[in-house]
Amino acid sequence: MFSFPTVRVSLFFIVIAVGCLLLADLSISAANPWKDLGNFFLGLVTPDFFSYQGLATALLRTLAFAFVGVALGSAVGFLLALAYRWSAVRIFCGTIRAVHELFWALIFLQFFGFHPLTGVLAIAIPYSGIFAKVYSEILDEVDPEPARALPKGTGLISTYLFALLPQCWEQIKTYTAYRLECGLRSSAVLGFVGLPTLGFYLESSFAQGLYSEAGAMLILFYVVIATIPLWLRRQTLPFFLIAAPFCLGEGFPIIWDNVSRFFTEDIIPAPLRHGDGLAGLFDWGADILITEAMPGIWNTLLLTQMALVLTGIIALMTFPLISTQFGRPAGRLGGHVFLVILRSTPEYMLAYILLQVWGPSMLPAVVALALHNGGIIGHLVGRQSSNLSLRADAPRGLNRYGYEIVPRVYRSFLALLFYRWEIIMRETAILGILGIYTLGFFVDSAIQNIQFDRALVLIAITALLNIGIDKLSRVIRRRLALQTLPTC
Amino acid sequence: MTVIALNELSASFNGRRVLGPLSLEVNAGERVALVGKSGAGKSTLLKLAWEHCGPEIALVPQDLGLVPALSVFHNVYMGRVNQRSSWYNALTLLRPFSKDRQAVGTILKRLSIADKQWSPLASLSGGQRQRVAIARAIYQGAGTLIADEPVSALDGPLADKVMALLNEHFNSYLIALHDVDLALRYCDRIVGVADGMIALDEPSSRLSKADILPLY
Amino acid sequence: MLRSLTLHCLLVLTFVFPFSASTLADTFVFTAIPDEDETRLVERFQGVADYLSEQLDVDVRYIPVKSYAAAVTAFRNNQVQLAWFGGLSGVQARRLVPGSEALAQGLEDQAFETYFIAHRNTGLSESDALQEDLRDRTFTFGSKGSTSGRLMPEHFVREHFEAAPEEVFSRVGFSGNHTRTLRLVEAGTFEVGALNFQVWEKELADGNIDTEAVSVIWRTPSYPDYQWTVRGDVDERFGAGFKDRVRQALLDLDDPELLASFPRTRFIPAENADYEPIRVVAEQIGILD
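Structure tokens for the assembled complex are given below, as produced in the milestone run.
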């Protein structure tokens, strides 16, 4: 068993996670954690759709921000993909996608304020970085022969139009539609920092314990995501794209002085602004590094490693729920619904809910991250396992699971898990905004104290950490020869 | 005037020389067949020849270079994308202009696949695809052609018909053919390739099937 | 086919419906720090908006925000011209917007207090000073940018224990607002918390507190807190004397229901210098550069 590199790597990560468990604060501090959780589920089954009349508008804004943000991101991302072979473009894309949507939103809020552009750019910028990477990977896979067979002197645009794009159009379409689903989640979560999307009202309802109201919003959100294939068609898409920009709401006009002030004053490190010179800058930087960045990085890493392993465990436990190799059709339907709920609920929302009911520690964050990501991986692995054909006399039940199925899907399972490593870390950092001491906590504190110079330094550190993990994950995947399609 | 000229060229693959060094010229008005057993270096030679040609040349590569996701029409239309502006091409992708439809339709009719003009390429058989690639080369309107086994998937009468059509549209070409009879019947000159070198280069009028078979 | 048609119609309706825009250019916009449950804030400040609109004869609009910093930033960016700030957020805002002024404060805001509250399981009872027993308890502030929920309690904790809260308590949280601090301590999620005394008194009067579960253990010395702050450039935009009219309107506010929702007895004039003590404390703690 231990001679398999995949098994050795898995064990190595499990050992690290167990080490983290010993160091991390995982207590449940709430006096009645299960009662609150019970109340929440009671709210989910007794949704109140009519208590809040702004619900329709919130849903509309959520859709509009997602559509405009993803459309803009995919257009810019496509152009970047064409230039992706230049390392400057690759580094640029890597950097913009290493910064989470919520951080982008927090940055833009400082100078665009509540203008719709804040929400649109918060989605479009990181998404264009992701689109650029994935589109370029898709384009690289395209059969180059048709382009070579074109008559000499064919222009670049015509070459793309005729020989390259048609070959990967389906993949680009599928991936972009999939990203739109991610965009809906991002858009909803932006409400938590004040944009007029679903998260805004969800946060208010949760904070006030109005679980039936929150339940109604969540259910509507699930329905919207689950029915995407019904309403998002080739015929309806142009309509949505044209209508979406008009449905962003008007917000408040942009005042350009604020923009220039942000870039020329706010983000200049305080010691330079106050003329304390390089010595002051050094003290300032050292202070951020020691009192905020280091503890932030430490907690972010602890949380990420625990969440990563628990994600794997949950994925391995849940994928049989939808696999045709196990169970009955009726049971599988239940499994599908369960996994749809897990993966449609943004981890930020899950963490928020669990923090409310269990009290503040790393536990709610670990569980939230693992449930969401485990749901995504479980869904993909389950689908893959359904395509396996076993010999007619293959064992059943647990033996089938252990001897036939898991060994066959383990490599792609690991590939997906390592792919999500960086995503989990990006989210971990963000969860700090909710009060767990990861990097996001210190970013949020700096913003609450109107110290954008500090916030930006911390965001940059977070981005570097993400880029580092992304590289490491790629090295591991290459060593183990694991391949996967992108997920979000 | 030469339309194809290779001068002391060679090709290597993974550090191993697979072709040449060799020289080969095809003059305007010359129809040349390239024969030899598979692996002798014909395809490599054709690739080199294509790379060293001017722009006025059509190509039917071995794997045809078709786009499965597009219709037959658009695959054929691609023969002229270099002669049209980008916006014209983009519009054609959405809705073809009628004069292009007619021109492409005429060629497809000659190749007996007129009924397939709007079918997606992916739904065609191997022989039909081969004819689409040939149609694309013809539609390009160049005087010279380089083709790698363009009729390998066609049955006897159809192969004859297509070769006749090629002779009609191209006054000079370099075509790899495994069918020696076809080569002798339609080409003016036979070039035999063995182990990456030219082993035979004679006008076909001076050759018989028996002269060529030792190459195989 | 029919289904997709109905779907289309529904979508068209939902998209067209919200197009009942109002122009913002000549609207007087204000915000408030989100120190309490949002529903309550919206009710209270919608009332204020209606009142001001009537008094000032311009469109007045209230926008809710998600954080104290967002309120300060909106004020700084001139997306709102007036704000109901806490002591600290007011000082931050006025530092960032030269020319802005504290206009009015509640009668109670001259001498505001923070209550430290504890869950009954701690066994703590009310005393005249911070107790040694607080060490290694779990503790929650309100919002990070709150005066009565964070700045002043942190100040008194530092003063008494001569250490940062993180070193005194076993766990330090930021609940987000005063109501939530109350709920979290009441539920036992945190053992001890610090909150705005007005919120406590109001919730107590409304019968919303389980006094069996939570009680006050210490009342801080008093300090200045909430105030209305206005931007210096409103006269240019809304006409000469506008600032004074806003101040007068606030001082004249006598709707008992509206005042009770704050809860304040009435509003009295305020000036920037009133909040000097807050600035000093904020600088000591390092919240202000």
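The longest helix of chain B spans residues 126-140. The helical segments of chain B are 42-51, 72-77, 86-94, 98-110, 126-140, 156-169, 180-186, 209-212. Further analysis is deferred to the final report.
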